[in-house]
From TrEMBL:
The keyword Iron does not apply. This is AAA+ ATPase domain-containing protein. It holds the Pfam family Spore_III_AA. Residues 122-261 form the AAA+ ATPase domain. The lineage of its organism: Eukaryota, Sar, Stramenopiles, Ochrophyta, Bacillariophyta. Coiled coil: none annotated. SMART domains: AAA (SM00382).
């Protein structure tokens, strides 16, 4: 990872009596915010906590010195510094005079989203959740650069607060070739989102801080036009979006449904239940738990349905350490009984063109743990040669057979397995479990083998 922060340009705007303390600070590159409040000592904030910079108190002159060296404040009381990503927010008194400043350090961090590159390549819309200050804006800035520069897509950023591309009319180079549309007033963000689609023919639209019902509706409209969306909103987890009425359209909307007595008895639920209304505008949700630990909902539609039914779905947890491996784990694995006596594992899409070494590293696959197991697999609607290659590369103790009766399990594409009633009946009779995947990609098949073997 590399970092571009232009911190010196922010320090130059601060009063001289404490900017020298910042210059000499050993944790200078870890600063999150610098706070200046009238009549109080200047304060610098790190991830581990705050620290005072000087014994001198902030005066009116100190505040005036800084405000004259930055851009003009918007109606939302935010300003910036030309050609940087720093954001300065002000606090005003009843006479509309500035009595406090919060100087937030903006950083363009390159390489932060390598852990979810396969999700970007899938072309599906992605919603990023996280509490304020966790780094959502930094992540979508890097996503914009990767999509526009490395994947060659037409990307438009709807930048309401100028946090993604900076406060200048010329966007910060951290967004790559992506184009930026500024929003004059916050309450007009939804209009600019629709304008971006209608006027500029984007393949991807990036929005920071979706917060209102109109913005959620605009996101749904954009998704229905076939444009990939990448957006952020405040919330710790997917349940927060479900419980937030203005934002439920992002995950398909929620409605009350009244069941018949017989159906309620069969489901063992109350007669009035919550159900999803429509298809989600975002197909993937990423929860930023910590800066190096993200929870992935690969199928939002399924996750929302299971949460509304009170059933725990399985979530993918990706953890990464700088200059080391990325690990993919599963908290719990949901198995759907789609057949009478057979189980179908609904393995989600991870369409990634990865090398074998990358696959083994990302899954943290242990060959020793599977050497003592022997499985005979019958493949239905999956390439026999592809399966054989994967088995050889991973050194699995697995045999392939072309006779169903000799198989200890059956694997194949989910949609084809569901249509073959004869195979279902035979598998049920012989008590052979059936496992299905959505697509026959190398990565999905490898994930299925991991589940079967470990």
């Amino acid at each position: 990872m590399s970092v571009d922060e232009d911190l010196d340009k922010l320090i130059e705007t601060l009063p001289s009596f404490f900017n020298s303390h910042i210059e000499k600070h050993t944790l200078k590159d870890k600063i999150i915010e610098i706070v200046m409040d009238l009549g109080r000592r200047p304060e610098v904030r790190f991830s581990h906590g705050p620290e005072y910079l000087s014994q001198k108190f902030i005066s009116w002159q100190d505040l005036d010195y800084t405000t004259k060296r930055i851009g003009k404040f918007s109606t939302e009381n935010r300003a910036g510094i030309e050609r940087t990503l720093h954001r300065i927010s002000c606090i005003r008194n009843r006479q509309f005079l500035i009595t406090g400043l919060t100087c937030r350090v903006g950083r363009a961090i390159f390489g932060t989203i390598s852990v979810i590159r396969d999700l970007l390549e899938s072309g599906q819309s992605i919603l990023i959740l996280g509490k304020p200050g966790v780094g959502k804006t930094t992540i979508i800035r890097e996503i914009a650069r990767v999509l526009s520069d490395e994947m060659g897509k037409r990307v438009i950023i709807v930048d309401t607060s100028n946090e993604i591309a900076g406060d200048s009319d010329i966007p910060h180079p951290g967004i790559g070739r992506a184009r930026r549309m500024q929003v004059a007033q916050t309450n007009c963000q939804h209009q600019v989102m629709i304008e971006a689609v209608e006027n500029h023919m984007p393949q991807v639209i990036i929005i920071d801080e979706i917060a209102t019902e109109l913005e959620a509706l605009a996101a749904r409209t954009i998704a229905e036009k076939g444009v990939q969306l990448v957006g952020t909103t405040h919330g710790n987890c997917l349940e927060n979006v479900i419980k937030n009425p203005p934002l439920t359209d992002l995950i398909g909307g929620i409605q009350y449904v009244t069941l018949s007595d017989e159906e309620a008895k069969r489901r063992k639920t109350q007669k009035s239940i919550l159900e999803r209304k429509a298809y989600p505008a975002f197909q993937i949700v990423i929860e930023i738990n910590e800066q190096n630990s993200w929870t992935i909902h690969e199928n939002v539609q399924e996750s929302v349905d299971l949460l509304l039914r009170g059933t725990v779905s399985y979530n993918q947890l990706r953890t990464f350490i700088q200059n080391e491996k990325t690990y993919i784990h599963y908290k719990s694995l949901g198995v759907n009984s789609l057949f009478n006596n057979s189980n179908l594992v609904n393995t989600q899409n991870l369409n990634s063109q990865l090398s074998w070494s990358q696959i083994n590293n990302s899954l943290n696959f242990s060959k020793a743990s599977v050497s003592h197991k022997k499985i005979v697999i019958y493949s239905y609607s999956l390439s026999y040669n592809l399966l054989r290659e994967i088995i050889l590369k991973l050194n699995l103790n697995v045999l392939l057979t072309k006779e169903v009766k000799k198989a200890s399990l059956i694997i194949g594409l989910k949609k084809h397995l569901q249509q073959n009633q004869k195979l279902q009946h035979l598998a049920s009779k012989k008590k052979i479990p059936i496992y299905g995947i959505n697509r026959g990609s190398i990565y999905q098949i490898t994930k299925l083998f991991q589940f079967l073997m470990l």
